[in-house]
Write a structure and sequence with these properties.
3-stranded antiparallel beta sheet; 587 residues; 4-stranded antiparallel beta sheet; globular; alpha+beta
Length: 587
């Protein structure tokens, strides 16, 4: 990837983001503008903004990388990401908007009249937000490392600084325009290169991936490692290289990699001929065994493929409704009907985007299999223009893709920072309006930025899946039961949030920290939604039934407000200023 063109593309996106944000800042005049865009964002514009922040680095980079590495199983990611909005549309969008809640803790307190439920919900919102921010910042580090050779933590630091300034300065009104612009930029950055990539693929006689075999190098390929690797070779291959192999220095001459394992030193460069099978680290990892890559529900994922698939589906399908940066956007709609219309448009926008992602994964399997060797599969989308097209055309398309990737993590980091900072400002810092909200943006970004510098080996899309699992285990039961069941009680909600969300949060924390790297325990912890979602629902229902006398006194009135259509759109107010709030502090 040409560094000069790539840096130019990323710089152009950052500059455009700042300019569009400045436009929003000019029309953001009131506190209500700052927090909720005065609840006046029309459905289509809000749908563009929701799609812009929802399509994160996991969507733009991570899913294609996982398809490259693990095959058809990974298509459950975009299916779950999109289908989650169906549940949101049918059960949550309109009632949540009618609740008047600005954040999930607001909704929890208004519905259950309990400060304890609010505090637990606040902790989980911050936890989900930080889990989701972690892979976005890692994606930023990957982009800057490919473009400049800078360490991975530097890109996350740059993005954190840009987003902190943008969010603190302009608030929701500004972010709405930025995220709507960035959706169309991301779609263009995938669609235009995809056309030229398909033309180049056809010109190369349209080779098909090795569906039932290990991947092979289609062309002569030079692979440079930046860290020590242990490779497994299943059949001898003739290579040339410099650096060190099995503890011996290489002088650039030809050599044969024999069957078995080989230790490759950092900074080693190996050149493979066309048709050579790709040696894979640590026996290939999941999804690379014969007959596994092209078949969904295969047994390649820790030998528990079916369980992992169901865990992924449950997490993505049910977790969408509890993502803090998605929920907060529905409060910017004028009313419940507009919230539903927003969700319908979002489904179409996400569907159009995700049609392109598998193409990059399959082409990456053909033309960038060396990323399996180095572990940089998240970079497949970025390197394909240069691999297939090359020259000035490849450089320009590479710059466009790099700009789209930059927009992906900028838009999502902006939305997450806005939502996490809102909770911190209301429930942690002394509430003194916009000034303390701006202060809250610093810890909202600083904690995941520091964590991203430590966690370097977790694929972007997998990390986002962990955030979805926590959301599905905590806020999915809270929202569905809180909206549709009058009998939910504060003790029931507390039990469900602690047992469902708390156990899922503990499981993903252990997974990220590397506490269990293989075996059944790793599978249970890495895909906890299969057991943590039922635990969350069961705890809320059973404890609520056992504490029927604790049903909130105003539950009937609250339920009526959630389900009766608004007679007309009320005046725009800042969160917490209307009659819906029952005791939460005003921002």
């Amino acid at each position: 990837m040409n560094q000069t063109y790539g840096i130019a593309g990323v710089s152009a996106v950052v500059l455009a983001t700042v300019l569009v944000g400045a436009l929003g800042l000019r029309v953001s005049r009131t506190t209500s503008d700052f927090y909720v865009a005065s609840r006046s964002v029309p459905p289509r514009l809000n749908a563009f903004a929701v799609s812009g922040e929802y399509l994160s680095a996991a969507s733009f980079l991570g899913v294609a990388g996982l398809v490259l590495a693990q095959g058809a199983d990974m298509l459950w990611f975009p299916i779950g990401y999109t289908a989650g909005f169906l549940v949101l549309l049918a059960f949550v969008a309109a009632p949540l908007r009618r609740s008047g809640a600005y954040t999930l803790p607001d909704f929890a307190e208004a519905r259950l009249e309990s400060r304890a439920v609010r505090r637990i919900a606040s902790v989980l919102v911050v936890g989900v937000g930080w889990l989701y921010l972690l892979p976005q910042l890692r994606g930023a580090g990957l982009i800057l490392r490919l473009l400049t050779g800078a360490p991975g933590w530097f890109g996350g630091l740059v993005v954190a600084a840009v987003v902190t300034v943008a969010v603190a300065a302009g608030g929701m009104r500004s972010i709405t325009f930025v995220q709507a612009f960035q959706y169309w930029l991301k779609l263009t950055a995938l669609l235009v290169p995809a056309v030229f990539l398909l033309i180049a693929w056809r010109a190369d006689r349209a080779p098909a991936p090795a569906w039932d075999e290990r991947p092979v190098f289609q062309r002569s390929t030079r692979v440079t490692t930046d860290r020590p690797l242990t490779l497994t070779v299943h059949e001898p291959v003739r290579v040339t290289g410099t650096g060190s192999l099995d503890g011996r220095p290489l002088d650039g001459g030809p050599l044969t990699l024999g069957t078995g394992t080989h230790r490759v030193g950092p900074g080693t460069a190996l050149s493979f001929p066309p048709g050579a099978p790709v040696p894979l680290p640590d026996d290939g990892g999941p999804g690379t065994a014969p007959s596994g890559w092209a078949q969904p529900l295969s047994d390649g994922r820790e030998q528990h493929g079916l369980y992992a698939t169901y865990g992924l589906i449950l997490a993505t399908f049910l977790g969408t409704m509890g993502l803090p940066h998605v929920v907060v956007r529905f409060y910017t709609n004028p009313d419940g009907r507009a919230a539903r219309r927003t969700t319908v448009v979002v489904l179409g926008l996400l569907g159009a985007f995700y049609l392109l992602i598998p193409l990059y994964g399959v082409l990456g399997r053909l033309y960038a299999p060396d990323l399996l060797l180095t572990g940089d599969t998240d970079a497949a989308v970025l390197v394909l223009p240069q691999r297939l097209i090359g020259g000035l055309g490849g450089d320009l398309l590479g710059a466009l893709v790099a700009g789209g990737a930059c927009a992906a993590f900028l838009s999502t980091v902006s939305g997450l920072t806005m939502s996490v900072a809102g909770v911190l400002a209301q429930d942690v810092l002394p509430t003194l309006g916009i000034r303390h909200f701006r202060l809250a943006t610093l810890p909202a970004v600083a904690v995941p930025t520091a964590a991203s510098a430590v966690v370097t080996d977790l694929p972007v899309a997998d990390a986002v899946g962990l955030a979805f699992a926590v959301s599905a285990s905590s806020f999915c039961p809270l929202l569905l039961l809180g909206i549709w069941w009058r009998g939910l009680t504060p003790p029931g909600a507390v039990a469900g949030l602690l047992l469902g969300g708390g156990s899922a949060l503990t499981a993903v924390t252990v997974t990220i920290a590397g506490g269990a790297r293989s075996g059944p325990l790793h599978t249970l912890l890495a895909w906890p939604a299969v057991w943590s979602v039922p635990v969350g629902f069961a705890a809320m229902v059973l404890i609520s039934l056992a504490t029927r006398h604790r049903v909130p006194a105003n539950a009937a009135a609250t339920m009526a407000r959630l389900h009766l259509p608004e007679p007309q759109s009320g005046p725009a107010t800042a969160p917490g200023s209307g009659p819906q709030r029952t005791g939460g502090r005003r921002p």
